[in-house]
């Protein structure tokens, strides 16, 4: 078993790559699926509302600061949609930006949950067997 | 109008579900609490919206 600090760092790194992936490292596959599903659903709905053009460093650099916390999905969308141009008015552009930014920031909250799981696990491991709380 | 409401509802639902999953270890319980919290919000928003619409019409 890995020691405490490298384990949480790798968990946070995995969580930054893909929402929920860090929870898998701590054996919480249910939470990984739950959080990953919710965050990615919000992200995909946001992309759909924004006509797949809301993740763009060229058009929305400030919004990208909030979206980038999703990691690989944002990189994938950036590379896939970089050729798309905004030529017409997108009716729900603001909603799409809001959704994708909320999804990115929610992943930060998910990482905080991972840290709390880490603290609980470390405390349980540090407690000697048979100790009375 | 309907799509605006659906957008708000979806984001509220996601937030409620995530919020309760952060506080609970049991995900079934967390999802149930999140849905109930979302339901309460929805009822309040619908009643407040209807009241506001009636009030502005009355004005």
Task: Kindly describe this structure.
The complex is a heterodimer of chains A (133) and B (59). By secondary structure, chain A is mostly helical. Chain A has six helices and no strands. Chain A starts with a helix and ends in a 7-residue tail after the last helix. The model of chain A has no long low-confidence stretch (mean pLDDT 91). By secondary structure, chain B is mostly helical. Chain B has one domain (2-58). Chain B has helices spanning 2-23, 27-58. In chain B, helix 1 (2-23) packs antiparallel against helix 2. The longest helix of chain B has 32 residues, at 27-58. The two termini of chain B are 22 Å apart. Chain A binds chain B through residues 30-31, 34-35, 38-39, 41-42, 45, 49, 92, 95, 98-99, 102, 106, 109-110, 112-113, and chain B through 3-4, 7, 10-11, 14-15, 17-18, 21-22, 27, 31.
The coarse overall form of chain B would be elongated
Radius of gyration based on Cα positions of chain B: 14 Å
Structural class, from helix and strand content of chain A?
mainly alpha
Largest sheet of chain A: none
What's the main sheet of chain B like?
A: none
| Number of domains as seen in the coordinates of chain A | 1
Query: Which overall shape of chain A is indicated by the principal axes computed on the Cα atoms?
Result: elongated
Task: Provide a count of the helices of chain B.
Answer: 2
Strand content of chain B: under 5%
Rg of chain A (C-alpha, Å): 18 Å
Number of strands of chain A: 0
Unreliable stretches of chain A (pLDDT < 50, length at least 5) are none
- Mean pLDDT of chain A equals 91
> What class would the helix/strand composition of chain B place it in?
mainly alpha
H/E series of chain B: HH
In helices, the fraction of residues of chain B equals: over 70%
Which descriptors would you attach to this protein?
heterodimer, A: 133 residues, mainly alpha, 6 helices, elongated, B: 59 residues, 2 helices, 0% strand
């Amino acid at each position: 078993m890995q020691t405490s600090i490298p384990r949480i760092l790798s968990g946070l790194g995995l969580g930054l790559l893909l929402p929920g992936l860090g929870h898998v490292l701590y054996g919480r596959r249910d939470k990984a699926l739950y959080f990953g599903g919710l965050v990615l659903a919000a992200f995909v709905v946001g992309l759909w509302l924004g006509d797949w053009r809301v993740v763009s460093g060229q058009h929305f650099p400030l919004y990208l600061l909030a979206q980038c916390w999703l990691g690989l999905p944002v990189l994938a969308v950036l590379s896939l949609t970089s050729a798309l141009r905004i030529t017409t008015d997108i009716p729900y552009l603001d909603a799409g930006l809001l959704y994708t930014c909320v999804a990115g920031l929610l992943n930060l909250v998910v990482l905080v949950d991972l840290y709390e799981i880490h603290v609980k696990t470390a405390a349980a491991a540090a407690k000697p067997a048979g100790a009375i709380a | 109008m309907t799509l605006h409401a659906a957008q708000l509802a979806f984001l509220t639902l996601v937030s409620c579900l995530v919020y309760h999953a952060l506080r609970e270890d049991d995900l079934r319980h967390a999802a149930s609490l999140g849905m109930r919290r979302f339901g309460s919000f929805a009822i309040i928003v619908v009643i407040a919206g209807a009241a506001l619409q009636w009030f502005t019409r009355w004005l």
